[in-house]
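Lab notebook: predicted structure, single chain.

Context: the supervisor wants predicted structures on file for every construct in the current expression panel, including those that have not yet been purified. This is the next one on the list. No modifications to the sequence; it matches the entry in the shared construct table.
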Amino acid sequence: MTITSLLRPAALSGLIAACLPGMARAQDASAALQPVLLQPPATQPPAPECVMSSARARAVHLARSLQDGFAVQYWGTTYDADTLSRQPHGLLILEVTRIGAPYSDTGREVLFTPEEMAKINRNGARPALGYLNVSEIEHYRDYWIDQMGGIDVAPPAVLPDWYGPTTVHKEHLSAFWTEAWHKIILERVDRLMGTGIDGLFLDDVLHYYSHAMDKTLVWPQGKRPDGPADAPAMAREMMRLVGLVADRARQWKCDAYVVVNNGVFIGRDAAGGADPRGRAAFSDYLDRIDAIMVENVSAPSTHAHTTEALQEDYRSQGVAVLSLDIATQFPDQKPEELRALIAQKASETGFYPYVTADNVFNQVYPPMRTAPPAPAAPE
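Prediction complete. Output recorded below exactly as produced.
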């Protein structure tokens, strides 16, 4: 679900393309899995009173919100606080950047203000989550401008450690395991959470697999930073990054929600068969996240093992499953028939569904109010 519109302002047209990529905690995990001591946020977060600070409490509240459905929007002609505030969905996944850096008067991103965010989330009554890509380098973000000196400038002669290869699909990957990239992402978390957003939607978690298995990747200047060398280690490092992000978000808001996009098999990949380090890392990962979204899980091409893993690895552990199905993946279905089909599958699987007409994400579609059985909340 990578954003490629450069976040145009409402008056400009654009394109957003989706990237559809193809247990007690052990104490003896490897040093690479040990928590990293977080530096204080650049902007000091408030010290809110914690009403619900446990995974169990978040699961209960999230399930209530999701009964009224969820929606995803990143831009559009009516992408403003007033319009978003009127959407009837129980949860919104949004792009916090209202106008992208290339299109703003200052050449910097324009984010929703805390006042606008309070209107969108109805003063906290309806959660809104902010988009954050944890593994791709987005050249239209302020961090790129700060690091490179502009949007269209040539990269420096000596590249930073986090500057990774580009895939054949033109996705610019970060070296997501490096401390330099962690610093960029955590500063981004501070900025997003400072707007009053209720949590984060973490995209492209699955790129741990791209790094491990894509043989076409060519590192710039032929230099790859030291780090994980295989799929299990890559998966564990990605889960560690997600944990850092979740912990940082909850420094700002103790009950902040964290939803990851795809990466269904990350726990199984991390275990590499029977590696206790992988099981420990996945247990910790499940403690940090509140839901996983899977795109086109209802499509005929989706393997049964995906649904099986979602049930066994996530729902049974108290992690909600959101399904986002795109109508273009079902060319033989009429819109209303497709919604009825998805609703039926959601009822059977216990997933929370949403159906879009395409992968542009420039408008909100009607909520799908289903009430699947709530997952068992973790102790």
